Amino acid sequence: MTVRATQTPEYWGNAFRLTNEDREYLLNLFLEDELPRSTDELTLALTRSRTEREEAAIRRKQQAQGTLYQPKRSFQVGEQVVFPALDFAVGRVAGIREGHNPEFGPFKVIEAELDGGRSREFAAEFAYEHRLNADEALLSPTEELVPPDELYARYGAILRERLEIELKAGSDFIQLAGEWFPRGLIADVNVGHLNLAEAILDMNGGGPMPTEALLRDVGLPGEINRQLQIFSLNYAMYNDERFDEVGPTGEVLWFLRRLEPPSVVTQPRQLMYTPQPVDRSRLTPDLLKIERSLDDEYSQLPAPDDLPDEVNFTLTFPHRQIGSVPLSPRIAKLFPTGRTHRIRFMFEDARTGAQWPGWVVREHHYAFGLDTWYAANDVPAGAYVQLRRGDEPGAVIVDLQGHHLRREWVRVAVPRDGRLTFEMLKRAIPCDYDDQMIVVTDDPVGVDKVWLNIHAHDAALTELIEQLLPELAKLSPQGNVHAKTLYAALNLVRRVPPGPLFDA
After folding, report:
1. Burial, 383: exposed, middle or buried (Cβ in 10 Å; 0-12, 13-18, 19+)?
2. CB atoms within 10 A of CB 83
3. Mean pLDDT, residues 372-399 taken together
4. What is the band of 308 on the pLDDT scale with cuts at 50, 70, 90?
5. Computed from CA positions of residues 267, 272, 278, 283, in that sequence, does the dihedral angle turn out positive or negative?
């Protein structure tokens, strides 16, 4: 039996390499219609091509051994014949006689001497309907072969990954927005076209706008098919630093980089964290439990398997100051995903229904756009903030837990002589909050000066803890400081996740 390599999982696995013949086949595929194609489409096409080429190679090899047997053919005595249905056994025609069957007209019967001394008879010149008379039956038993589409269903995921690696490693094809196209066939997009795209976006507040909308005025040659126009303009804009692709998965949306909020283009220093080694064996079960409850984006704890429709988190000072949301793995599942570092979406106020732009900055694990909302609602650091999916795709609804204003004794950060001190004072609080994490800042400018002073002197983490612990302890009759309180206070002057703090 001829063994087909394409029928084995190993063939489509890590050993798979893209050959020059594969590249030529893919190029011709694009030349047929000049349409971009997804990795899935190319993977399926390549699966079919590889199996067809293997079948053709086997056919050529078998034909070299003799005539492939089909009942409709005529044969001569002494002719070498290959019988596909007998695992490609080879035989020599030893004799020919007339056949007889009342159901059919005249035909012949050949006697073939097979390898090993066997002798069998076969129909010849049998020009009637028969399974073996079909051309596709030449390489039977075809019913034992897994067809290309089924091979794709079985091994497509593995091959898709390998194909992506191989195509990206070469320079013949480029990928944009999940689709591929040969580099040499891309339509010419010149500086004038890109200047027009910039002007259109500028007149529309920077964006976001889909490529199709830009094409209406950019004006690429009409003889180029629409899909290739879109791909070519996308390619040119991807390679021009004036433009930023900010669409969620499945959409391409363009924005002018110079009109994006500064806190989106550049990570604010208050959110920057330099990773430090952590000996997690030193963290007690209680501290590990607290770390999980804090859900810091830099802890990068595993997210739950189920996709939440609603998430509550405790707002920390750095995010309150910037107007952002921490994108821990758990919270990030609520927000739109995309191919680029920045994704534009819409926030929605749960009480008023008002909407405004938000930005996912996945590279640095935060979403920006709540600065005005935090300020308008007097949200303190330590407040419970609620997020849930909006009715519109990609929208995120934001709300506070509890909407009753009351005066409470709370922890207030008081910058004094370049250091941070704390007092318990009565303040109006508009929402529910975590007693152990609330920190009101009446003087955010003064707190920021302390931040800058600490970073200018590059104070060690242990030094900061020694400064803050006595200040926090004096607020408690027992002189105790909860781990969450220390975490909240420390993040007023240095961005540190729970792990390094608890280790220190």
Report:
1. buried
2. 20
3. 94
4. confident
5. negative
